[in-house]
């Protein structure tokens, strides 16, 4: 400032002072121009330097996109800086700027960006309605401003688009000649605006302190020890004329991760909705809380959990969100959870984690009870069986009557009514007095009796079974029946969207759908469902976790199946690492273990807990002594009532008829009826109680013997203490006593007080106490006691109780039935500890002594010296389990890993790790415990729009998938796109273990398979297995679609073969051609891998497979040669010149088609060869055009992939890039050959 004030006065003095005659000219000194071209050039160079340093993404194989925001009414030089930066991006870089962008090692760098321009001429609402067509999130943002309000307006419009990426990288340049001193204050305001208002932390803020110098700031919100979550501006660099003052230090400071790997001082707010089993009522348990504990332990942050009955929330008319989403938008919550399913409206505004669990929803109605027992007499046989019985009865009566008519039988057998009655009595196995007199009729009677005996026996046995376990009444199992019954239906508000569509069935449900509090999942509303007053749409898991499970019935068909996720703001800093951890947990099977633990707890442990809490009255009510009730005798009383009614009807008929033969018939019927009546007598059983009498103690005259039994091998301590009631009595020696084991003498302790062994065998122990000479009558008594606790020496060590249990890791190889067990070393005396494993199929081992007693190495002596015995067990790298014993002991010495073989599938093994102190004999303690179970792998669920990866090594060369055709699919087919990751596979499609099509064999390239004649709503099993056992195939990729094309995947042509044009083959290049995709917005990527000249076949050379092309490490492959990506052109088929090849060499070429959403499908690979001799030249041309073929794609060449290269956004189409720059730049060089470079 002093110079600025002094310079004008010096100029005036020079003008006033008389000029000597010898002076030929006057030099005027002026101030530095803050708005001149030098300031603009320095600002553009500053932005270029920061973007080259900060805008890079090594792990991405796609072209990143960059947004440059154009602000109107900018002052100078901010306007010139912005226009210069835009002009430089649109025109490309000049050749004299080629050496300007260097990386840290001094090598040239360049990168490709897709340029997008935004301006403040459009309002935020119009910008939201006019979205970018590709919907790909923006990677980088560049904003040039001269005031804070302009920055606020630019961010408001940027955040209004659907492509806004809070985790994108921002470069904000602030240049205002009137503000040169408020750099820290302005940086703090800008960083707080991006952090609080837009949840962005990847920000560089460059503040112009003079015309050519800038101070660069970035935010540091999460590295503090006490102020985690508070934005703190941090100065990371100083840029002068487009150059860092200290390049190495500035580059390292700029690229420091904003989020550290561990956040021990950060506390986040987790707001949850009560939704068992994901979030239980007490807010302490739940599947999602367990998942959050795993995330918290991984990143070391803290969580404050709050529970409420609020729902997820919906977007209201005023643009705000309700319930939990409203709390999160108001920064009162950082994360919300509670069984939330994905929703497009929510995903547009908020971020979400990877899907980790599934939830099944259906309608719940009252469970049907047992059917009426009076119907069981008819239901146990079919109607045709009863008709056959009636026919047999009629035919038998007629035969009886006919035979008796022709033979000399009594008159009673000649009457048709008596024949029917006798036949009926035989049917009921009732003794009849009217037996036939003729032999032929007797034989018929015997056959009829045997027939009736068999029928009655079968009928009685089935009737007893049905009475004991009566069938259920008719169960309502469809939504149509629920709607027809008129019962009110409803559920949660966010589930109503599933029924708002044009389908007739869903429209009927939507018209009667209720979302009030009476239809929300709760115990009170479940009781209303049991009473039959309403039907609720609820989660099957929620009902399974309540006491009403079994009292309500869920419809067989699920209404919808949703994935579960956690919701947070899009810019939440831990979201990427959350997704990586959740994906690892899913791959490792931990999510499946949590699910199985939940099923185990709700099905077994809860029922055991309920049975333990039953009172005596509940137990009596659950198992009553009266087993025969009126409910069982409904049929008997019904028959009795029917008989009475018939009797009354017959009686009235008799009174009316007054005929003789009717009176006779009536008398006979009454007599027979009286004989058929049987009274049932109920017998009550009384419970008998048994009392167990204790055994009497055996007392000898001079010695007393005490006995006890040890059920397990354990430590043993026996103490005998003497107590005298008189204080002044002299000390009396204790009695003599000794210990016997199974009748054998162990040790004698004369006047001793304690017997201790660190490990003794199970069995009967006897303690004999000699009381001769002991003054029993003098007031002195002795007390004998024993316990099975271990040695107490280690309890006095100071750090024993402070050390945490060792964590045990288990790596399973299900195919080989092998398990690798690893554990952490003991925190106590780490240098002298040895380790032993106890693997048991029965139960956990509490001590090493107990494990030795249950193992095959059990010693025969009564006392076991643990260390001496374990020294005989030589450590081995591998150990096979012995199937004849329950517990196997393996000692590893000082190693902390052991390989176990011979484990059986679906068997639970308990693994206990013991630490043994090598310098203190018999000192050992339990270091850690876990359990292992080799589970069978279940089929992988295929979802449309997602590519599933299957591992063939899991089931010995087989991978299983299942796919359920959508119920509303209009097609009777579905398509599978199978990509083998090297090798050859075969595919089978089955339905209920039956093939529905011929197997597709020998698939060694990406192939689309159409499965026809399928039915919507049915599930199909896809089995993929190795066709060649000698191949190195390990994985496959499968995509499914029930439509003509695959969702989010590019459409592939019918012919996916890549052809080498042999006539165009040269020594340094070759030409390939293929058919393009029918889609328009498709990007093609070509990968070239070089084969060694001595190996013309790929059997012994490792070449990447189809599945590894999208890997971030594909460019680091030793055989990698080149990669090139370009957009589709209008020509079909496509052709491409592959240059920079070596003469007489083989190359493998892959081509992939990438959709706008980033999903790709590969073509069939091809092996090409270059010519052995060069006809034109033997040298590779370093400059000049690369392609020389026909068509626009022939001008496409390859760039060398090594390090990060210079950015160029000028090639929006054709992607024709050379090693020396763009084609446009080449034309400029050709037009001006005399230009200085």
UniProtKB/TrEMBL annotation:
It is found in: Secreted. The chain crosses the membrane at residues 443-467, 637-656. SUPFAM superfamilies: Periplasmic binding protein-like II. Pfam families: NDNF (PF10179), NDNF_C (PF19433). GO terms for cellular component: extracellular region. Residues 1209-1219 have a biased composition (Polar residues). Residues 1-18 form the signal peptide. InterPro entries: NDNF, NDNF_C, NDNF_Fn(III)_1. Keywords: Glycoprotein, Membrane, Repeat, Secreted, Signal, Transmembrane, Transmembrane helix. Residues 1007-1174 form the Protein NDNF C-terminal domain. Residues 1199-1237 are annotated as: Disordered. PANTHER family: NEURON-DERIVED NEUROTROPHIC FACTOR, PROTEIN NDNF. This is Ionotropic glutamate receptor C-terminal domain-containing protein. It comes from Anopheles stephensi.
């Amino acid at each position: 400032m002093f110079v600025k004030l002094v310079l004008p006065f010096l100029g005036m003095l020079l003008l006033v002072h008389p000029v000597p005659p010898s002076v030929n000219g006057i030099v005027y000194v002026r101030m530095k121009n803050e708005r001149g071209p030098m300031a603009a050039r320095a600002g553009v160079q500053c932005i270029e330097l920061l973007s080259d340093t900060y805008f890079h993404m090594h792990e991405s194989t796609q072209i990143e996109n960059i947004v440059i925001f154009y602000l109107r009414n900018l002052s100078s030089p901010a306007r010139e800086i912005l226009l210069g930066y835009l002009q430089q991006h649109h025109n490309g870089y000049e050749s004299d700027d080629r050496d300007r962008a260097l990386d840290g090692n001094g090598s040239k760098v360049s990168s490709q960006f897709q340029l997008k321009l935004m301006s403040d001429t459009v309002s935020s609402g119009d910008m939201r309605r006019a979205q970018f067509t590709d919907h790909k999130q923006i990677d980088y943002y560049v904003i040039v401003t001269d005031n804070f309000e302009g920055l606020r307006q630019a961010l408001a419009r940027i955040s209004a688009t659907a492509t806004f990426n809070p985790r994108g990288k921002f470069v904000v340049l602030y240049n205002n000649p009137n503000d040169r001193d408020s750099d820290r204050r302005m940086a703090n305001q800008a960083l707080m605006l991006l952090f609080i208002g837009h949840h962005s932390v990847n920000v560089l803020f460059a503040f112009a302190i003079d015309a050519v110098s800038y101070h660069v700031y970035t935010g540091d919100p999460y590295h503090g020890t006490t102020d985690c979550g508070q934005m703190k501006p941090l100065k990371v660099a100083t840029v002068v004329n487009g150059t860092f003052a200290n390049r190495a230090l500035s580059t390292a400071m700029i690229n420091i991760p904003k989020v550290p790997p561990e956040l021990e001082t950060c506390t986040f707010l987790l707001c949850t909705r009560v939704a068992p089993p994901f979030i239980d009522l007490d807010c302490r348990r739940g599947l999602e809380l367990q998942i959050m504990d795993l995330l918290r332990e991984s990143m070391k942050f803290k969580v404050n959990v709050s529970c409420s009955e609020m729902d997820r929330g919906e977007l209201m008319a005023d643009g705000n969100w309700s319930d939990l989403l409203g709390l999160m938008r108001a920064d009162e919550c950082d994360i919300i959870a509670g069984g939330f399913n994905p929703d497009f409206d929510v995903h547009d505004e908020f971020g979400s984690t990877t899907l980790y669990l599934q939830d099944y929803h259906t309608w719940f109605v009252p469970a049907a009870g047992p059917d009426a027992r009076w119907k069981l007499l008819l239901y146990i046989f079919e109607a045709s069986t009863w008709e056959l019985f009636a026919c047999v009865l009629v035919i038998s009566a007629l035969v009886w009557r006919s035979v008796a008519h022709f033979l000399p039988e009594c008159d009673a057998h000649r009457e048709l009514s008596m024949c029917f009655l006798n036949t009926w009595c035989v049917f009921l196995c009732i003794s009849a007095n009217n037996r036939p007199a003729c032999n032929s009729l007797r034989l018929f009677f015997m056959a009829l009796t045997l027939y009736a005996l068999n029928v009655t026996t079968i009928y009685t046995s089935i009737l007893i079974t049905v009475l004991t376990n009566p069938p259920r009444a008719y169960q309502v199992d469809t939504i149509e029946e629920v709607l027809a019954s008129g019962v009110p239906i409803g559920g949660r508000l966010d589930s109503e969207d599933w029924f708002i569509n044009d389908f007739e069935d869903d429209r009927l449900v939507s018209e009667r759908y209720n979302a009030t509090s009476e239809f929300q999942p709760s115990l009170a509303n479940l009781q209303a469902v049991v009473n039959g007053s309403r039907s609720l749409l609820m989660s099957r898991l929620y009902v399974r976790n309540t006491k009403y499970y079994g009292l309500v019935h869920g419809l067989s068909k699920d209404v919808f199946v949703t994935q579960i996720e956690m919701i947070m703001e899009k810019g939440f800093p831990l979201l990427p690492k959350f997704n990586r951890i959740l994906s690892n947990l899913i791959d490792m099977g931990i999510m499946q273990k949590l699910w199985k633990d939940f099923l185990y707890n709700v099905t077994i442990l809860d029922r055991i807990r309920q049975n333990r809490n039953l009172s005596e009255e509940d137990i009596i009510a659950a198992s009553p002594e009266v087993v025969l009730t009126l409910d069982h005798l409904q049929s008997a009383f019904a028959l009795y009532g029917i008989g009475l009614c018939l009797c009354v009807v017959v009686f009235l008929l008799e009174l009316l008829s007054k005929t003789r033969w009717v009176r006779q018939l009536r008398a006979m019927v009454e007599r027979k009826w009286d004989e058929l009546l049987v009274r049932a007598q109920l017998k009550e059983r009384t419970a008998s109680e048994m009392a167990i009498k204790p055994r009497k103690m055996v007392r000898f005259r001079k010695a007393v013997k005490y006995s006890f039994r040890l059920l397990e091998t354990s430590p043993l301590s026996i103490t005998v203490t003497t107590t005298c009631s008189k204080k002044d009595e002299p000390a009396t020696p204790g009695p003599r006593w000794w210990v016997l084991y199974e009748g054998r003498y162990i040790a004698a302790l004369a006047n001793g007080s304690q017997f201790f062994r660190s490990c003794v065998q199970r069995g009967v122990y006897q303690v004999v106490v000699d009381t001769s000479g002991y003054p029993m009558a003098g007031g002195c008594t002795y007390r004998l006691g024993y316990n099975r606790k271990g040695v107490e020496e280690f309890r006095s060590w100071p750090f024993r109780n402070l050390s945490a249990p060792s964590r045990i890791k288990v790596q399973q190889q299900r195919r080989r039935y092998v398990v690798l067990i690893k554990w952490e070393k003991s925190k106590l005396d780490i240098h002298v500890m040895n380790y032993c494993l106890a693997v048991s199929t029965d139960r956990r081992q509490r001590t090493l002594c107990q494990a030795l007693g249950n193992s095959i190495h059990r010693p025969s002596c009564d006392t076991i010296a643990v260390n001496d015995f374990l020294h005989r067990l030589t450590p081995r790298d591998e150990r096979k389990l012995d199937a004849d014993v329950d517990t196997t002991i393996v000692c590893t010495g000082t190693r902390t890993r052991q390989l176990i073989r011979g484990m059986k599938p679906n068997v639970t093994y308990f693994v206990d790790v013991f630490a043994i102190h090598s310098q203190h004999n018999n000192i050992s303690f339990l270091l850690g415990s876990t359990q292992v179970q080799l589970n069978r792998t279940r089929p992988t669920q295929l979802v449309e729009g997602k590519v599933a990866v299957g591992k063939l090594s899991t089931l010995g060369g087989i991978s299983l998938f299942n796919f359920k055709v959508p119920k509303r699919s209009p097609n009777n087919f579905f398509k599978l796109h199978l990509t083998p990751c090297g090798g050859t596979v075969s595919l089978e499609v089955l339905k209920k273990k039956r093939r529905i099509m011929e197997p597709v064999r020998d698939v060694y390239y990406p192939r689309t398979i159409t499965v026809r004649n399928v039915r919507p709503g049915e599930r199909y099993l896809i089995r993929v297995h190795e066709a060649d056992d000698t191949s190195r195939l390990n994985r496959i990729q499968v995509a499914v679609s029930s439509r003509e094309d695959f969702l989010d995947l590019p459409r592939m042509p019918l012919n996916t073969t890549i052809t080498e044009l042999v006539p165009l083959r040269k020594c340094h290049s070759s030409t390939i051609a293929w058919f393009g995709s029918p889609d328009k917005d498709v990007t093609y990527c070509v990968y070239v891998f070089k084969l060694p000249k001595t190996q013309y076949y790929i059997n012994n050379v490792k070449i990447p497979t189809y599945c590894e092309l999208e890997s971030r490490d594909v460019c680091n492959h030793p055989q990698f040669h080149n990669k090139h990506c370009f957009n589709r052109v209008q020509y079909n088929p496509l052709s491409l010149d592959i240059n920079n090849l070596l003469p007489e060499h083989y190359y493998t070429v892959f081509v992939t088609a990438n959709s706008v959403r980033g999903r790709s499908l590969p073509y069939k690979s091809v092996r090409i060869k270059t010519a052995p001799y060069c006809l034109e030249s033997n040298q590779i041309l370093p400059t000049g055009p690369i392609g020389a073929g026909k068509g626009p794609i022939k001008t496409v060449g390859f760039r060398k992939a090594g390090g990060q290269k210079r950015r160029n956004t000028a090639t929006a189409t054709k992607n024709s890039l050379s090693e020396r720059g763009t084609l446009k730049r080449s034309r400029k060089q050709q037009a001006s050959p005399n230009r200085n470079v």
